[in-house]
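# nightly structure sweep
# worker-07 picked up a monomer target from the shared queue
# config: single-sequence mode, recycle default, output format = structure tokens
# input follows
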Amino acid sequence: MSTLITSIIVFGALLFFHELGHFTVAKLCGIKVNEFSLGFGPGLFSFKKDETQYSIRILPFGGYVKMEGEDEKTQDPRAFSNKPVGSRMAVIIAGPLMNLSMAVILIAWIGFFAGVATTKVTVIPGSPAEHAGIKNGDIITAINDQRISSWDQTVSIISQKPNQTLKVEVLRDGEKKAFYVKTMVDQDTGRGIIGIKSTVVRYSLLQSLKSGIQRTMWASSMILTSIPQLFSGKGVSDLVGPLGIAHMVSEAARVGIYNVLSLTAFISINLGLINLLPFPALDGSRLVFLLVEFLRGKPIDPEKEGMIHFLGFALLMLLMVFVLYRDLIRFYM
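# output follows
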């Protein structure tokens, strides 16, 4: 039961902050918002304040902010379609930006209260790292001539190089040294390892915020480089839906709250970046339509645009059903 509650809180926070971004900027731009909804389908709970209906719906696979004139023609001066292109772009991009901001805040929170894994290492006795000459307290600065700025980056590079020799550069007592280390293969994951652990340090508030920004940017770059694999079909097997995410949350919850927060931050980055893809029904597609409107000097018919987004939404729902089925088989059967 506690795992289910944790998963609901994680889903709710991710969706709430994304839609809150759209909602807040829409209100600041003077746009009439008819509904703020978390989830789709039949309503579970709702209330109305001023002109906006606030709803929680039964299917927790997304959410929406329904603005006047978003997908239809209207003469209302406060309608989304009647606002300047710049205002509408700001509303659309606010959702993904809120997700990225949420990740920065969560990572900074972890760094301030729990500490951050640094590139200052502890070497496991008898490991490839020890045999190569790396010592406790060494600070990894580069691997294969690629500059290292975080422990996550260190793990990512090493894990992708099983049974390969790596050039590892370290800083020891202010002096730079280079070692050549042959990676081992982790029997559980098949990933490369060299037998080092990170030193965890507590950061100040300013350092934590800086770390939050840096780690969010690094994770974003890793995700962006992997997105093309989705279109080639190679990355489809890595897709997970709500059930898969709930499974990962339950695994993280067994370790502790900070693991849950770290996972939430990573999912939030994914949600923000995926929403920026130029696929119908996603925020990125709406930005493309607005860019076309700006370049051609007149808007695209809202009803035609709405139909394209509806078709895109239908395709996304079909994909969601497929991913849900596969998650059910993979994690729960």
